[in-house]
Structure formats: C-alpha cells, structure tokens
C-alpha cells in the first residue's frame, strides 16, 4: 500500500513523504527497508483516516492499538504484528521529534513478542563436506568454492557477499571489508582455506570470466557481471545437496559460522562484531543454539539421559 493508493489526507501524505526522506537520507536505510517502513506507516495512517483522524497531531495510542487489533482480526501473525508495531514506534518517535506530534504515543505501544525459532545449523563435519564438495577446477567451480568458503568463514549475508569488490580484500592480512546494514563497515578475518580459495579464483577463475562489464566486483556471474543473490543461493543449495548436508541455504552457513565460533570458545562480543549485529541481544540466540545442541548430544550419548 502506498500513499497514492489510499484516501490519505494531505497532512498524512506530507508526513509519509518526509518520513521516507528521513529513512533514506538521514538513516541511510536500504530501499527494501524504506519500502517496508513506508508501507506499514501508510497502513497505519490509512486506518487512522478511516477513524476520521485526519490530522497527524491527533494520532494517539488508542488509534495505534485499534490498528494492530484490526490487523490481528485480518489474520496477521505475531511476527507481522511485532514488525508493524516497531515501524509505528519509529514513525511516532520521529514525528514527535519533528514537532508533528505533541507527544510520542508509540512509546507506550506494546506488541506480542514474535516466536523466536532457533536457527538450524550444520554440524562442523557437514560444513566441511559441503565445502569440499565445491572443489572444481573450472572457473565457475572455483567461484563456487570461493562463495561457500567466504560465506562460512565470514558469516556474511548474501547481499554483503555480492557487494564485495576486489579492493575490499586485504590479501596480506587475510581480512575483508564488508558493508553491512545501514551502510556500516566492518572488517572480518578470513581463514586460510577461504583465503586460498579466493586466491585461486582471482588468479585463474576470475580472469576467465571477466568482461569489461565486470568492474571491481570480486565475484562474477557466468556472463562476467557482478554475481547476484539468486546465483549465490542456487550455488549454496546445489553444493549442500551434493554433499548430502541439510539444505539450509546461505543464511544457514551464517548461522553455522556463528554457532561453531561460540562452540570453539569465541566470546559473544566478537561474534556480534563479526556478524555485524547492531545489538548483542540478536547474537545471543546462538548461545541458545549451542545449548540445544549440547542437550541433544547429551540425550543421545548419556546412558541415563
């Protein structure tokens, strides 16, 4: 839903336009995230208009709650309601700072906690088998090996991996500069196997695929352009299937990297930095994953479990 697709008042349309500009230019959020926020706020203000709350200054907690209640009645999940409530709180806090609201009604808005499912992860031997299955001396095979090794070594997101340039690598120090959410940079170490795979790709694989359209991109598609997320996902799914490993996709490699680091003795703050999480609370889910894996091992192995 967009502002132009509804009967929003001029006041509401103006507020949405200013909020969108704030998200894109001041907070530097991705276009996808901006669209999600704007869609949620447009839904909120459309609901407010149906209640004849056409002046943004009249937006109150009761209107926010009735909006969430309506979404719930339409079948919205707990996760969706939590996301929508979060968007509303961001919007009302911004509007209050701008003087568009006399106070921030979103500060008192609560929402149901979404169910947090522990992420599935590969065992260390499954990850090793998947990486070994990617061994191939063709240019595309060398690229695929570099893709898997980098994803597992760095815990990078797919979009972050696709955005890497050759100059983001420090081949001497074996690190890579990653541009994460909110355009925040972080420098991540790269292990020796991943470093070797990338070196082979750069020396033999990339020159075979490179074209004038390749630019500075580290990883290339079969036609020489920068690799895209769809190709990365296909590569990971195929290589995991060939190795007989659970098909967890690229994010499964990220989850696995974090879990294996913690199980190997890494501290939580270091893993947070590696993954580019804004808060430590997001990273803490991997401690629960490790505990669950320990419990499962105990149940299988202990004679009196």
How is this structure best summarized?
The chain has 305 residues and is mainly alpha-helical.
List the helices and strands and how they pair.
Elements: H1 10-26, H2 31-50, H3 61-73, H4 78-97, H5 124-133, H6 139-154, H7 158-162, E1 169-170, E2 175-179, E3 185-189, H8 192-209, H9 229-242, H10 249-263, H11 268-275, H12 280-283, H13 285-301
Antiparallel strand pairs: 1-2, 2-3
Helix pairs in contact: 1-2, 2-4, 3-4, 5-6, 5-9, 6-8, 6-10, 10-11, 10-13
Which features characterize this protein?
globular; 3 strands; 58% helix; 305 residues; DNA polymerase, domain 1
CATH homologous superfamily identity of the largest domain: Intergrase catalytic core
Under CATH, the topology of the largest domain is which? hpI Integrase, Chain A
Q: Main β-sheet, in a few words?
A: 3 strands, antiparallel
Summing up helix and strand content along with how strands pair, one would put the structural category as: mainly alpha
Head-to-tail CA distance between termini: 53 Å
List the secondary-structure elements in sequence, H or E.
HHHHHHHEEEHHHHHH
What's the domain count? Answer: 2
CATH architecture of the largest domain: Orthogonal Bundle
Structural description of this entry:
By secondary structure, the protein is mainly α. The protein folds into two domains: 3-108, Orthogonal Bundle (DNA polymerase, domain 1); 125-301, hpI Integrase, Chain A, CATH 1.10.443. It is 58% helix and 4% strand. It is built from 13 helices and three strands. The protein has helices at residues 10-26, 31-50, 61-73, 78-97, 124-133, 139-154, 158-162, 192-209, 229-242, 249-263, 268-275, 280-283, 285-301; strands spanning 169-170, 175-179, 185-189. A three-stranded antiparallel β-sheet has the order 1-2-3, with no helix packed on it. A hairpin with a 4-residue loop joins strand 1 (169-170) and strand 2 (175-179). Helix 10 (249-263) crosses helix 13 (285-301). It is globular. Mean pLDDT is 89; it is low at 1-5.
